[in-house]
Specification:
Elements (H helix, E strand, L loop, with lengths): L2 H9 L39 H22 L5 H34 L7 E3 L6 E3 L19 H5 L1
Antiparallel strand pairs: 1-2
Length: 155
């Protein structure tokens, strides 16, 4: 999937996998999975911590460029500029929160792509999950693995 496609889906606040499902159910409440394709958005605990970098980075960049430019061009008085900068620094991250998470999802999909075959429904929960071949249940075609798993071997 192309970078521009993922950015476009992120800016539209849509699922990075299918581009159809909405990411958010409210202003700050994110859906657990895509309503269209079933992709779970949070890959692991703390997954969205990276979106803070997007949010903080853009806020700091705008303030670091905007404040000196407005200060040295004397567009606004110092007090008004300081109040405006403070208001921007407090309000912009709240508005950009959804886009930061969406961009983080798109970035993650670009750097570590999931494919539709990686998403399957587990029989006991009927919810999709991101799984590996070792997590799949044993069947007649695929017998249960014998011996220690990769994580047990490392211990």
């Amino acid at each position: 999937m192309g970078f521009s496609t993922l950015v476009w889906r992120s800016l539209r606040l849509r699922c990075p996998m299918c581009g159809q499902g909405r990411l958010f159910a409210g202003w700050f409440r994110m859906r657990a999975e895509c309503e269209s394709c079933g992709t779970r958005f949070e890959r692991e605990a703390g997954f969205f911590l990276g979106s803070i970098y997007f949010n903080y980075g853009l806020t700091a960049l705008v303030v670091a460029i905007g404040y000196p430019v407005l200060l040295f061009t004397r567009t606004l008085g110092e007090t008004k500029l300081l109040v405006l900068t403070l208001a921007f620094t407090l309000l912009f991250p709240m508005w950009f929160f959804r886009y930061a998470r969406a961009l983080w999802l798109g970035f993650d999909q670009f750097m570590d792509p999931r494919h539709r075959t990686d998403i399957h429904f587990t029989p006991d929960t009927e919810t999709p999950s991101h799984a590996t071949a070792d997590d799949a249940p044993a069947t007649a075609e695929r017998p249960a693995a014998v011996g220690p798993s990769a994580s047990e071997e490392r211990s």
